[in-house]
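Re: beginner question about structure tokens

> Can someone show what the tokenized structure looks like for a real chain? I only ever see the sequence side.

Sure, here's an example I had lying around. Input first:
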Amino acid sequence: MFSDNELISTLEMLKYEHLDVRTITLGINLADCASHDLHVFSSNIRNKIIQLAGNLVGVCNQVGDKYGITVVNKRISISPVAVVAAPFSSAQMVDIAKTLDEVAAEVNVDFIGGFSALVEKGIARGDQALIEAIPRALAETSRICASVNVASTKAGINMDAVLKMAEVIKQASELTRHSDGLACAKLCVFCNIPEDIPFMAGAYLGIGEPDAVINVGVSGPGVVKKAIDRAISGNVPVDLGQIAEIIKRTACKVTRVGELIGREVAQKLSLPFGVVDLSLAPTPTVGDSVGEIFQSLGLIGIGAPGSTAALAMLNDAVKKGGAFASSYVGGLSGAFIPVSEDLNIDASVQSGILNLEKLEAMTSVCSVGLDMVAVPGDTSVDTLAGIIADEMAIGMINAKTTAVRIIPVPGKKAGERAYFGGLLGQASIMKVQNPPGTNQFIRFGGRIPAPIHSLKN
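And the corresponding structure tokens:
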């Protein structure tokens, strides 16, 4: 139950501070759609998705209107296509992606995630076909999102998959040269990918999940910023411990709002409720920025000395608040730092406060990793693979999720602008160390073994 004060403060968050339910994501298990016949398989997945998701958008709008809380995005996540479509070739995988894209448009969801493969320990036939299909699948569709898990704390880092994904990123970028490599904005390379993420581009439905489930993603960087501003501008001095407590309490309120909406949507669709993912996911809207939180904390901008410590405090406080508010917190739940999707973070790149090396350091304590980072189009495959490998190592050693969503922008150089549009925003292209020749370390291949602390059984 909400107290009167909580209700009033929540209403203020909704009206003035950009609080919303960022996404309701319907997870759908497609395992029972499997067939060796492409036509039968495509028909099965179309029928199942329409049956389960046909009313999703309408119900989300109805519940949102009831509470005056906007559900910004309605999305679908599915079983990893590399598993449920394992018998098919790369070309047939592209056809499957197009079918999924058509169905997503038919039920009017924003994105459908799960064009995915899990290859942290090796690449099976279905995985290989899907990975080879990714560039065309993302270039020839508008609503498909792809993810590939190439590392985990339990398995180590599959360096063959890392190199392959670097090649895929370059190919996807070239196929969407006319839109600054937009296909790459719909592709994430993961370490320790969770099975219940509601946020794109990494969303997919894990093997251990229900047949269908509602997961909700709530965001509120503007809410957190305003709470910090009020505390700092008050008559009573506050220290960082007290600010962390304020962030935690704010995250608690936001989480409760998300679970309220998610559970009602699930009830109306007669589906189980899964998790609420409280991730401070920014948009290219003024006042809805994670970067602005760092300025409220007294830093000149995100990337300045002290930023990693500030992000660690922010991420931890958000997780604590979410865990207190709900027993069903999942996904990533922390702070995202996507460069192109946050005006303030992009401004820090333009001003030189934030560079790729500092961004990588900060990913050791944030919820994801190198997210929506635009780099020069001539960045080599070996350099991209090295960047991915470094980020996977951070996730593997720290037993946390890390990801890379990097866009080599064809024909553009460091300091120029890339334009992706809508929620994906725009970004200043970051300078990258791009030495000539091959990176022999990357091209040794094989698997970097799992760390000793993976032996927990």
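Each token stands for a local structural state, so reading them left to right follows the chain. The first strand starts at residue 20 and ends at 28.
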